[in-house]
Design brief:
- There is one protein chain.
- The protein has about 100 residues and is mainly beta.
- It has one domain.
- Helix content is about 5%, strand content about 55%.
- The protein is built from one helix and seven strands; from the N terminus they run E-E-E-E-E-E-H-E.
- Strand 3 and strand 4 form a beta hairpin.
Length: about 100
């Protein structure tokens, strides 16, 4: 995967990062893999090299020196490999907090 991105800090307490990854596999006779080397079911039997494109947006805000809130959103747009395996695009998002004492 190649994933160019940019990160900016509009204020001293906030940060925003955006990247777009281009995921490809090297050979047609291997499966396509997600994070943690988990194979996408059925992808070892389909032609193509393009797994898909992954948009990732991450934002954080340091509310105080002890509390940081963050937001993460990811969207995988399927490429020809996942499309031939009849797997859909998908999104994932979460909000979290870090408390330091």
């Amino acid at each position: 995967m190649i994933a160019p991105g940019i990160s900016v800090s509009p204020t001293p307490t906030t940060n925003l990062s955006i990247e777009y990854g281009f995921a490809r596999r090297l050979t047609d006779d291997d499966a396509a893999y997600a994070g943690g080397m988990r194979a996408y079911a059925g992808t070892q039997n389909v032609p193509g090299h393009e797994i898909g494109g992954l948009l990732r947006v991450v934002g954080s805000w340091s509310v105080t020196e002890h509390v940081t809130l963050f937001l993460n959103y990811e969207h995988l747009a399927v490429g020809d490999v996942l499309e031939h395996a009849r797997l859909p695009s998908g999104s994932y998002g979460y909000v979290g907090a870090t408390f330091r004492y």
